[in-house]
Design a protein that fits this description.
215 residues
Length: 215
């Protein structure tokens, strides 16, 4: 895993290493390279800022209203599928996971089968060692392409089996699986759970229709 001591002599180098993340999302306290998991929890508790831990740096999670709405819908639909079958756990946009020592990511929605959950019971650690089967990221305006390429790569390096990148502006979902090219699904397609959640199906026209709903 990259460190800051030899590879990031300038702020520009740091932002490049993080995937062109906007400076507004990079916290300078603690100093870059010095942040820990305890700092992730402290900033969340004291300031209400949800941050991932990357290379010893606190990187604020990108936020957006429409992205949040779509994440809520996806989480609800996954819960409706997972709970009756008791397949595992579904978490939302503040469900922190430790992918590797020193790397904390926060998928907008994630599914972890019971076989991946330590002790097959709800973790009590606020940042558990838990690699989900499915990680879902709903893109916000400040997410960059290089940031998401890095994040998808880390998910697969850790053992995630399936990643969905949901783009509210393009109204597409990029389906990523290890060692294969991503498949881009548009409004005419149906998103399915593949081998991770066999039987789960969601017409994307139904999902993105939420963006057009009005009173």
């Amino acid at each position: 895993m990259a460190t800051l001591t030899t590879h990031t002599p300038t702020l520009a180098d740091l932002l490049d290493q993080l995937g062109d993340v906007p400076p507004s999302r990079v916290l300078m306290r603690p100093a870059p390279g010095q942040a820990t998991e305890a700092d992730v929890l402290t900033v969340n508790d004291r300031e209400g800022r949800l941050c991932e831990l990357v290379d010893g740096v606190l990187v604020e999670k990108a936020m957006g209203y429409s992205a949040s709405a779509l994440a809520m819908i996806l989480g609800r639909l996954l819960l409706n599928f997972v709970l009756p079958r008791n397949l595992g756990l579904v978490t939302g946009a503040d469900g922190m996971v430790r992918l590797f020592p020193g790397l904390v990511r926060i998928p907008d929605v994630a599914f972890a089968s019971w076989d991946r959950v330590p002790g097959r019971t709800m973790p009590k650690d606020p940042i558990p060692d838990l690699v989900p089967d499915l990680a879902i990221e709903v893109l916000s305006d400040s997410n960059t392409k290089r940031e998401m390429v890095r994040k998808v790569g880390e998910y697969f390096d850790a053992g995630v089996r399936l990643v969905w990148l949901v783009d509210p502006k393009a109204r597409t979902v990029a389906v990523h699986a290890p060692a294969t090219d991503p498949v881009i699904l548009d409004l005419t397609a149906t998103l399915d759970g593949g081998e991770v959640l066999p039987g789960f199906a969601l017409p994307l026209a139904d999902l993105f229709a939420e963006l057009d709903r009005h009173g």
